[in-house]
Amino acid sequence: MPRLPLAAGIACLLLTSVLAAQAVLPLDLFQNQNPAPHSLLGTEISDLKWSGRYLWVATERGLARLDPALSQGLSPANWVTYTQEQGLGRGAVSAVDAVGDTVWVATLFDTTVVGVGDFQVGSGLSFSSDAGQTWRHITNEAIFDTSKTGFYRGPTTPIQNACFGLGISGSTVWATFFAGSLVRSPDLGQSWERVLPDRADSIIYFPTENAPLVESLRALADSIERAGEPAERVALARAQADSLIDQAGLHRTFAVLTYGDTVWLGTGSGIARSFDGGRTWANHKVRLDAGGNLLPGNISGNGVVALKRQLLPDGRSVIWAGTRAIGAVSGERDGISFSLDKGQTWQITGPTYAWDFAFSQNKVWASTGQGLYASADQGLTWEQVVVR
Fold it and tell me: 244-249: which pairs have CB atoms within 8 A and are 24 or more residues apart?
């Protein structure tokens, strides 16, 4: 999943607006082995997080930190950049989240499989509880340990299993992996649990895995319909078949947003939402009418690559999502979907889907593959912003 350099405009916006015991898993501890360089390394910004104290900027070269209490970040010397030498995983930073002095980072690098092609490799997660003074690194293999409950199906390789979303909620960290789906740790990475957004017993990687059961349910629906069974029973059998078709997409996760007991999850089959810490889930996805047109009140596309929460002055909140058409359902379209009522209904806006969002007092900002856009009317209209 590529990330874009166009968030640089959002970085400028945020800069001005901001103006334990030894682990059970094999965690590598790094403490002041190599002083972090005072510079903002890299040319592509993939993610930004304000922790309440520091601004963290993820790039293809590492993770940069700015303390706005000391400077505005206009000089390279105002920044400190952490890389593999200080304890991060190998490669570019693909996700970051931070609260106070605690920061979690995901990394990835590219590899070539001879005769097959180029792939992204997840190089694990790293975290610091002291604003970067010390780091602990957790490998993908440690997280997806097949000897542990819930992970017996892997994935057994870090290839095509990078993390693209991180969320800190209290003492729990949530992470979305491309192949491995959603995982969480309640104890600073010492233990991990896979949390599938349909509470399935095991992960489904490919739609074909459910093909026999799907065909059985469809045959059952046809049979009971011919027998004159109630329409509700027929509809239930067909809905169950459709759900199994979508299961592989639902287990493919891209983005996560967490606060309190609420978890929003961007998947390859819409948005999954839990209000009880992942015990129960609801799924918001593209819905079409009989003519194949998007039904009002639903998201625009089932590929959900970005999620952000905007707090309004009146106390309400808005959930913003980058919703991408992935071709699984005809009628999908690229767009920005947002909800004012905790996901009960959605509105569609924007010229395309967004990779990330930021909010200032009077504007919503969205970084997209077509550039940086801003809306001064809560998504009714958008204006492209030229970043020089």
Answer: 244/210, 244/213, 244/214, 244/217, 245/207, 245/210, 245/214, 246/285, 246/328, 247/198, 247/200, 247/204, 247/207, 247/210, 248/204, 248/205, 248/206, 248/207, 248/209, 248/210, 249/207, 249/302, 249/326, 249/328
Token pair, residue 386, equals 């030229």
Element containing residue 234 per DSSP (H, E): helix 231-250
pLDDT in tens, 306-359: 999 999 999 999 999 999 999 867 789 999 999 999 999 999 999 999 999 999
Dihedral sign computed on CA atoms, order 388, 65, 40, 139: negative
- Cα 323 to Cα 177, 229, 348, distances in angstroms: 18, 38, 9
Task: Enumerate the β-bridge partners of residue 317.
Answer: 311
100-109 pLDDT per residue, tens: 999 999 999 9
Bond into 351 cis (ω within 30): no
Please, which residues have CB within 8 angstroms of residue 379's CB and are 6 or more apart in sequence? 336, 338, 347, 349, 350, 364
Q: With contact defined as beta carbons under 8 Å apart, do 127 and 136 qualify?
A: yes
Give the best-scoring range by mean pLDDT among 197-201, 240-244, 348-352.
348-352
Of residues 285, 202, 284, 213, the one with CA closest to residue 244: 213
Q: CA nearest 285: which of 293, 276, 295?
A: 295
Q: Are 68 and 52 in contact (CB under 8 A)?
A: no
Q: Given this model, what pLDDT does residue 105 score?
A: 98
